[in-house]
Amino acid sequence: MTPSPQSARAVIFGVAFLDLVGFGIVIPILPIYAQQFGASPLIVGLLLGVYSAMQCIGAPLLGRLSDRIGRRPVLLVSIIGTAVGFLLMGLANSLALLFIARIIDGITGGNISTAQAYIADITPPQERSKGMGLIGAAFGLGFIFGPAIGGVLSRWSAAAPFFFAAVLAGLNAIAAAWLLPESLPPEARHRPRERRSVRDAFDGPHGRSLALIIATYFCTTVAFSLLTATYPLFTKQQFGYGATQNGWLFATIGLIGAIVQGGLLGWLLRRTSDHRLALIGLVLLMTGLLLLPWTGTAGALWIATAVLATGHGLAAAPLNGLASKQTSHLHHGQSLGLMQSAASVARIVGPVLGGWLLNYDSVHALIRFGRSPYWTGAFMMACACLLLSISSAKSAA
């Protein structure tokens, strides 16, 4: 069955959007919800971290499985798993059940790699980064709506946002069952008895380039997650901002990301290459991180925030598009799964590193608050620029 690009992309957009809506709902609600069951701050941190840890495991496994049995069944089962995870969170009566729900949600949340592989299957190579931008736009919008939905529904009860997210995921599963055809024909799949390993994704002439792109993506995600984890503390210290002001700032980040990846990216890709556009994004991220500690006015803060959001929007989708181009369709799921696995590890490393460095600034009065984490992030972006430039040279060789 030949996929209908319009309906297929709409469903894939829904998968990515709901993943980020769910993620956004959980961030402001889960710490308070978990305290009802006697969770300490450490346990709350573990509840938040276990999601990324499970995504790290689930993304490459689901990607490899989709290379073998097809994208559609993996997406359907994972969407249902997401619904079950949210339902269990809403029904939870103990910390143990909360952890089980987060583990299920994290593993099935690794379906982003399969969604990206689906886009790679139905999109010509020259338009692949634009297709990845569709998923990035869904991420941006989910990042806006998730916290807002969680805040509004939590007025009824602490569990209401989780039940709402479960219903959304269930509706998405129904839409996928009706509208999402298979994108990977049987003749293009791996045979069930065929032995495969992670090394298979790096076989071929572009294996080293793929490794460098994954390393670039890791550095980028560490820097951006370091930023988002410490940003509210930075704005509170420097500008006295509370939850409302930070909510608007995060909504701005999501909105700019959606505009850049959902609209501007396609126009830019017709005028330049994936490598060049990703490099521009990395440079903008580095610039924003360098400037952020020195923002002394609200206007300067908003400008630096816009630069950071634009840079991330320009870099993320082209990097995923480049990764898909380094392998054949036989390894799209696995290679993009490795990208998401690297990003999941980065989302664990980034907040821990950022929090430690920001604490260092807070106890050293002579150091400008925010300089240590954000300049460390800028250094990582310089490394990312170098890695991407090497990858580009190897691909051209």
CATH class of the largest domain: Mainly Alpha
Helix content: over 70%
CATH topology of the largest domain: Growth Hormone, Chain: A
Shape: globular
Which sheet architecture does the biggest sheet show? none
C-alpha termini separation: 38 Å
The tally of helices reads: 13
CATH homologous superfamily caption of the largest domain = MFS general substrate transporter like domains
Write down the Rg: 20 Å
- Annotation, overall tally of beta strands: 0
Range of strand content: under 5%
User: From the helix content, strand content and strand pairing, which structural class follows?
Assistant: mainly alpha
Q: What is the correct CATH architecture of the largest domain?
A: Up-down Bundle
Summed over residues and divided by their number, the pLDDT gives a mean of 81
Keyword list:
single chain, 397 residues, mainly alpha, Growth Hormone, Chain: A, 2 domains, 13 helices, 80% helix
Short description:
This protein has helices spanning 5-35, 41-69, 71-91, 95-108, 112-122, 128-153, 160-179, 207-239, 243-269, 274-291, 298-325, 332-363, 371-396. The protein is an all-alpha fold and 397 residues long.
